[in-house]
Amino acid sequence: METHQNDDVLNVTIDAEIYPEVVLLKCLYWYTNNFEVEIGKLNNLQYKITLKALHQTETLDWDNIVLKLKQDLIDFKLRQFITNETQTIRELIIAKAFAYYDHEKDPISEISDPVGFSPQSIKV
Amino acid sequence: MIPTSAITNMQSRKFKEVEHYQSPSRDYFLLPFKFHRISVEKEVIVNEVGDFLVVPTGTTTRIVAGEINSGSVSDQELYADLIANFFISESALPDLIEVLATRYRTKKSFLDYFTSLHIFVMSLRCEHTCHYCQVSRVTSDKNKYDMSRLHIEAGIRLMMKSPNPHVTMEFQGGEALLAFENIVYAVEKAKIEAEKYEKKITYVVCTNLALLTDEMLLYFHENKMLISTSLDGPSFIHNKNRHKPNASSHQLAVEGIKRCREILGSEHVSALVTTTTLSLEYPEEIVDEYVALAFRNIFLRPISPYGFATRNKDRNKYEAEKFLEFYKKALGRIIQYNMDGYFIREDYASIILKKLLTPFPVGYVDLQSPAGLVNNVIVFNYDGAVYASDEARMLAEMNDFTFKLGTLGENTYEEIFYGNKVAALSEVMTNESLPGCSECAFQAYCGVDPVFNHATQGDLIGHRPTSSFCQRNMEIIRYLIALMDKDKKIEKIFRSWITGKS
Fold first, then answer.
1. Number of domains in chain B
2. Is B146 helix (H, G, I), strand (E, B) or coil?
3. Nearest C-alpha neighbor of B377 from the set B150, B182, B159, B124
4. Which of A82, A111, B54, B297 has the fewest CB neighbours in a 10 Å radius?
5. Which of B116, B122, B207, B115 is nearest to B380 (CA)?
6. pTM of the model
7. Last residue of a domain, one of B376, B401, B420
8. How far apart, in whole angstroms, are the C-alpha atoms of residue B248 and residue A19?
9. What keywords appear on the UniProt entry (chain B) (predicted)?
10. What ranges make up the beta strands (E) of B142-212?
């Protein structure tokens, strides 16, 4: 990860193999309160991120912001890894949670047997 | 090192080797869970049904990397906790998946019976002139600002159609007691209908108690009605917040509370704090006032951003940080009272603690997913308009009718509760699918409020990084977990708040 900052803009180059787009989007969403965020592709292997401060402040502590960004990227990658690996079991839990709730009701209408195939009419 | 292949290869539909489906160099399989850093040293991990463990920072990385070794002495206890609390499993399909599914279902069981709270706004008239009040009018024009009996009857008919066998009929204002004769009419009518439809009704009157008479008290007693009033703290705060021409609102409220307790019993009277800019300066004094009046609970609510309150920016708009600072100081005072032997609980914390420490859901409209509006609450306004929540009708006072669902006497139950508007709203009513919330560790304890998002940010989905709802709830939940982790005496107090046993 390469970083470069001047005044109110931070440019970061990120390895696309390590941090896929979904991780970048989920992580950088939380920076949109203070920054105008741009995500672009430098090439197939790298993303270019630009953070531009929304509010003019006297001093932007870029060292801390970069440190936090690095930490957040790792955290969101971890989250995404868990989400991907547990997606099927999560869907299964939710499906099972609600699947057994439907009450089975007896059909209200009478079942007709126009061609005589009713199981009840078959003599064993 | 965390393998990235599972993520980067997702786009391919080719058959994969068997190794692809095996857990990467782990002796266990992951179950769905989320994590959040609560301090430099600690992080909290939360599973799919809201069970949590506070663990040293870096534990999630170790879990995912397969480094938790059941054979290692230092990891034995953690490994057992992770297995027992459904964070990891020794088989791909956990043996107890049915238990997990049942727990999930229990967490969402507040949905089983649909709408319970039916708010009837009996009158918009009020004799107070509170500076932050969203809706009231000082007027004697009953015809214009009181709910008509036709609308009362139509509201009761809709309430009887609710699938919920236990409904709450809450009378609000303005000042509801200004329309006492209509409250009596509504209760008597509802009693007859409830017998017909085999429903149990809890009656609640929201009042400032200034107009309370013996006749009213007797009626409330006969019908086992609950009183919900407002007490903003000592007189210098309460009277400033709640101005009543030529009278002390605080004195009237305190006297009213005493009379209600004598006739109805303490358990039938509750009070709410509305926090204003002035209140923020006096967290301890507000708690002390509640203790002095022998309350056993206090509900510290932030002021809502609706109606007249939004327009009065100078007096009411304050940062979420200021409220959190106030809340933490007040909570500290409340905890100290409990440590000293006086039981008093904070209700907002208790709602979150119940979600944290028990398998059960809490029927609190603001902290539910799917959202509480319509699912749990519906509002019948004085003019017959039906709104999705109390806050929605306050927005309507600002001429924003986004959440108006219909009109009493004109629309059917199906049109109101299952109509296009509710269908559209339901798209944004689950925090499991909202940006920012979907990855949040506190998802199971928090809720979603499209009305708040719309009122404060102009869209139903909302923007979490700038949402005071998100900022406030995330910090309160984090703070409660950190307090319990830091001091077991505090955890014991918190547990007593949700069990009622000290």
1. 2
2. strand
3. B159
4. A111
5. B122
6. 0.88
7. B420
8. 63
9. Iron, Iron-sulfur, Metal-binding, S-adenosyl-L-methionine
10. 166-172, 200-206
Residues of chain B with Cβ-Cβ distance to A22 below 8 Å are 7
DSSP class per residue in B84-122: HTTSEESSSS-TTHHHHHHHHHHHTGGGTT---EEEEE-
Q: Are B362 and B239 contained in the same domain?
A: yes
The reply to whether residue B34 touches residue A82, judged by beta carbons under 8 angstroms, is: yes
Model pLDDT for residues B288-320, shown as the tens digit of each residue: 999 999 999 999 987 666 554 454 434 434 578
Q: Is residue B435 part of a domain?
A: no
Interface of chain A toward chain B, CB-CB under 8 angstroms? 17-18, 20, 22-23, 26, 29-33, 74-86, 89-90, 92-94, 96-98, 101
Q: In terms of DSSP bridges, do strands B42-47 and B52-56 run parallel, antiparallel, or are they unpaired?
A: antiparallel
Among residues B50, B84, B107, the one where a domain terminates is B107
CATH number of the domain enclosing B361: 3.20.20.70
Q: Are B98 and B118 within one domain?
A: no
Class of residue B246 by CB neighbours under 10 A (exposed 0-12, middle 13-18, buried 19+): exposed
Do B258 and B346 lie in one domain? The reply is: yes
Over the stretch B364-380, which tens digit does the pLDDT of each residue have? 888 999 999 999 999 99
Domain boundaries, chain A: 2-99
- Please indicate, yes or no, whether residues B253 and B337 belong to a single structural domain of this protein: yes
Q: Is B108 on the interface with A (CB under 8 A)?
A: yes
Averaged pLDDT of chain B = 89
Architecture of domain A2-99: 2-Layer Sandwich (3.30)
Residues B205 and B252 in one domain: yes
Asked, for residue B388, whether it belongs to a domain, the answer is yes
Residue that is written with structure tokens 């292949």 in the block: B5
Tell how many helices (H) and how many strands (E) occur in chain A. 2, 4
Number of inter-chain CB pairs under 8 A, A vs B: 85
Domain of residue B332 covers 113-420
How many angstroms separate the CA atoms of B246 and B260, rounded? 23
Whether the CB-CB separation of B393 and B380 falls below 8 Å is answered with: no
Cα atoms found within 13 Å of the Cα of residue B191, Cβ hemisphere only: 11
Count CB atoms within 10 A of the CB of residue B471.
Answer: 18
Side-chain-facing half-sphere of B390: CA atoms under 13 Å: 20
